[in-house]
Amino acid sequence: MFKSVVTLALSAMLLICTPVSAAEPIVIKFSHVVAEDTPKGRGALLFKQLVEQRLGDKVKVEVYPNSTLFGDADELQALRDGKVQMLAPSLSKFDAYTKQLQVFDLPFLFDDLEAVKRFQKREKSRELLRSMAGYDIYGLAYWNNGMKQLSATRALKAPADAKGLNFRIQPSPVLEAQFAELGATTSKMAFSETLAALQKGTVQGAENPWSNLASQKLDSVQPFITETNHGSLNYMLISNSKFWISIPYQVRTQLEAIIEEVSFKVNQDAEELNRKSREQLVAAGRAQIITLTHEQREAWREAMRPVWQRFETEIGADVLRAAQTVNR
Ligand code: LMR
């Protein structure tokens, strides 16, 4: 009895003496699947740094790179379940939620990354940021990586060279169709499994921007890389709609301003980073880099182009038309 009175008195004293703690910061877990020295990896770290500087007492950002928290297979569900608050999946990974974003996968649609950026500023692209609202997926910004190159265990100079090879692809029907046009087969696979699958030989080819090729050391298993620039790898920075709207207005506005700044920087630096990664691969000398003449590249374009028509209805003729007007 005496003991419990003392315990009660002590607890009461403790309660009185403990200073009222400030509200707990909002925690944003930002999970992604690539290395830190890539456009997305750097973007995530810059976001964390700026939030720390400007909103350090109110928001805490934790970055989990290289599929260490969630990978391709489960990250979108984890975001919808509130287990993670920010992601930047490639636009090829949203097929289950919207068909419209497949426009970004169409081969040879955009001449270069500048054209992609111009499209992302158009009204149609801005609308696509809201295309998954029904699934609680809230698009915040577009981040870009770079133009994709083909790699394989044999030299790919003409489209017919790809025939019979099995390519690792992201889960996009457009990418599946693109390789089918070449007489190649595909395996949809998480990014984190790609290197092992190429090592084992279950797939013999892939498509990646220079930064992912170099940071994953894919040249250790892909002796030939063809500089096709046939498509682009772009991301959507997303959050969970309910979570995002629940952030107090003032803090949310500041976060959105930081996102705008970071997105500008990511998209400004992406090309340079990919150029450096290309140089790194050339210097390593493990893979032969095949450059195409204008005529050779035109042959790839002709081979892959029938895919556009097949997906026009799903994507929407208006979206496709808007995308077609951005090349110069
Ligand atoms: C891929 O799966 O190839 C890419 O989406 C990986 C990434 O996020 O850059």
UniProtKB/TrEMBL annotation:
Top-rank taxon, per record: Bacteria
Signal peptide start and end residues: 1-22
GO biological process, one term: transmembrane transport
Gene Ontology cellular-component annotations: outer membrane-bounded periplasmic space
Keyword Aminoacyl-tRNA synthetase: no
Keywords of this entry: Signal, Transport
Record-linked Gene3D superfamilies: Bacterial extracellular solute-binding protein, family 7
Coiled-coil annotated spans: none
Signal recorded as keyword: yes
Family statement: Belongs to the bacterial solute-binding protein 7 family.
PANTHER family hit by this protein: C4-DICARBOXYLATE-BINDING PROTEIN DCTB, PTHR33376
Descriptive protein name: C4-dicarboxylate-binding protein DctP
Organism: Phytopseudomonas punonensis
Lineage: Bacteria, Pseudomonadati, Pseudomonadota, Gammaproteobacteria, Pseudomonadales
